[in-house]
Amino acid sequence: MQRYFVSPENFGEGTVLIGGEDARHIARVMRGKAGDKVIVSDGVSREALAEIASIAEGVVTVSIIENLPMTQEPRVKITVAQSLPKGDKMEIVIQKCTEIGAAAFLPFLSGRTIVQYDERKESKRLERWRKIAKEAAEQAHRNIVPEIAAPLTWKQLLNSVYRYDAVYFCYEKEEGLQLRSAVAPWAAQLGEAAEVSALVIVGPEGGFSENECREAEEAGAVSVGLGKRILRCETAGMVAAACILYETGEMGEA
């Protein structure tokens, strides 16, 4: 069943208004008609099974049949901090990590970032990233759309580390600690905690410098490897997010 996210102000007690591209998608792509069932969510606290009541130009009105529990989200809220990669790789990171279960993204600039950051183009890029996250969240039947911040500097990223219960800095070292070994003891201590947070920091195509590794560790991050294979920067965040969710029991029984 198709799922759509709407703004909270459009989510009423008995009816929900679906507008914009989603309304056009229902009318022109899905060939929707009165009585068709959809799932609607405000991406915050409300989700419902609804049926189409009417289709007008630019807006679809649906009537709520029943409210649904928001049980699709992992209790481990993973934020993927990704140093800006070339081309459309950030779009891949956002799409796939959203499908896996990431709760937020922090793009940032590090010493070996190749991308030429242009602040004038930033609003359009953020708009596209957020659209990709929304579509991926709908496809994966998420209850929320992950938040995507404007790109941070390296210093700004390190200054935000204290906000998370666990921080993993993806950096290959000879005989270094692997992510699974780092996550397992932390996962075992979670107990009945309702919600916990983890930050995964991933470098650009050229990786991190030793100095950046030292600074991250001084800020409180744990340096971890992701196995014996060398992963592309757009793959590392996906692997790390999946590993954390698996080890914390979010991909079936622990």
Describe this structure in words.
With 254 residues, the protein is an alpha/beta fold. The chain folds into 2 domains: 3-68, Ribosomal Protein L25, Chain P; 76-248, Alpha/beta knot. Helix content is 32%, strand content 24%. It has 7 helices and 11 strands. The chain has helices at residues 20-29, 89-100, 122-139, 154-159, 179-188, 210-219, 233-247; strands spanning 3-5, 15-19, 37-41, 47-56, 59-67, 76-83, 104-108, 147-148, 166-170, 196-202, 222-224. The strands form 2 sheets. Strands 8-7-6-10-9-11 form a 6-stranded parallel sheet, with helices on both faces. Strands 1-3-4-5-2 form a 5-stranded mixed sheet. Strand 9 (166-170), helix 5 (179-188) and strand 10 (196-202) form a beta-alpha-beta unit. It is globular, with a radius of gyration of 20 Å. The two termini are 29 Å apart. The mean pLDDT is 92.
What is the total tally of β strands? 11
**Structural class by secondary-structure content:** alpha/beta
Distance between the termini: 29 Å
What share of residues are in beta strands? 15-25%
Q: In angstroms, what is the radius of gyration? A: 20 Å
- Assign a percent range to the helix content: 25-40%
CATH superfamily of the largest domain: SPOUT methyltransferase, trefoil knot domain
CATH domain topology of the largest domain: Alpha/beta knot
How many alpha or pi helices? 7
| Spans of at least 5 consecutive residues with low confidence | none
CATH architecture of the largest domain: 3-Layer(aba) Sandwich
Enzyme class: transferase
Main location: cytoplasm
Keywords: Cytoplasm, Methyltransferase, rRNA processing, S-adenosyl-L-methionine, Transferase
Pfam families: Methyltrans_RNA (PF04452), PUA_4 (PF20260)
